[in-house]
# Entry
Amino acid sequence: MEHEKPLVLFHASRNPHITVFEPRAETTRDKNEGPRVFATPNRAIASLFLVATDDSWVQSGAINGVPYIIISDEERFRAMDTGGTIYSLPSDTFVYDPNKGLGELEWTSTEAVCAINIEHVQSAITDMHTHGVKVYFVNPDTFNAIQTA
# Structure
């Protein structure tokens, strides 16, 4: 099913001074993908990326359109939550692949993109709650059980 292209996409960063987003290969979904700028049409999904985490202790995504984050180390997460910036980007050079990443919730561009709006966020957790993200703090055993389920 083809989705209508949104006019604006969102990108989260801890860097509040980005003027041009250049495609990078630091985060890729597969080894053949190459440099990309990542963005999402869902403002709540963008808030999931305000804190630098990895799959070893945090899992996030969306179920039936509802964004969630499961965190196995609350103290670590809160210590790393120093806020950040949500950038609004024009969507014209972006596409999505329904078979990669978050599908229609994850768009990429192979071209440089300039922000059209900047929103500073004081706390990722507060921003997630404000935008409807379901936040779950669990112990490491529960997190491991979720990962292997």
Observations:
- The longest helix spans residues 140-148.
- The mean pLDDT is 93.
